[in-house]
Amino acid sequence: MIAALGDFSFDLLGYTMALISVFFQTMYLVLVERSGAEDGLSSIEIMFYNSLLSLPFLVFLIIVTGEFPSSLSLLYAKSASVYFFVMFVLSLVMGIILNYTMFLCTIVNSALTTTIVGVLKGVGSTTLGFFLLGGVQVHFLNVSGLVINTLGGLWYSLAKYQEKMRRTAIPK
């Protein structure tokens, strides 16, 4: 929120969509954590059920937004390109690995830990974006928001580590 205060190109719709996305991602991770812990499902089984349950919503959104015909024609036009095929397969593999590791992190740790790791990844991406992509005015509010975000993530990680050490230090 502090970094957002310094955003001179403030877009209410953009920030609203970002908050809605964060809310649904949190609910999603809690659901993954509960289904994995309560039902004893593995990361691969959760990925399968997630894909199966998400497919009708994705198809609905593609049809409603009108992207279905244009995406099919684009896929047909690019299908002969080896470069497109390699990039398509790489994108699929990276997406599968990302989802697998996210589900595994959520099952092994917790939904909160996965969220904090995601926030720390976002801080790293944002910082790299400042330097590599440009187009953003770096000023005190941006930097202080990122620093507070990073310190909060590190503090949480330290607290979880200390909690784990305390549990292993207590003889049973």
From TrEMBL:
Signal peptide: none annotated. This is Sugar phosphate transporter domain-containing protein. Its main location: membrane. It is a multi-pass membrane protein. The chain crosses the membrane at residues 12-31, 52-76, 82-100, 112-133, 139-158. It is found in: Membrane. It comes from Helianthus annuus. Keywords: Membrane, Transmembrane, Transmembrane helix. One of its GO terms (cellular component) is membrane. It comes from the Eukaryota.
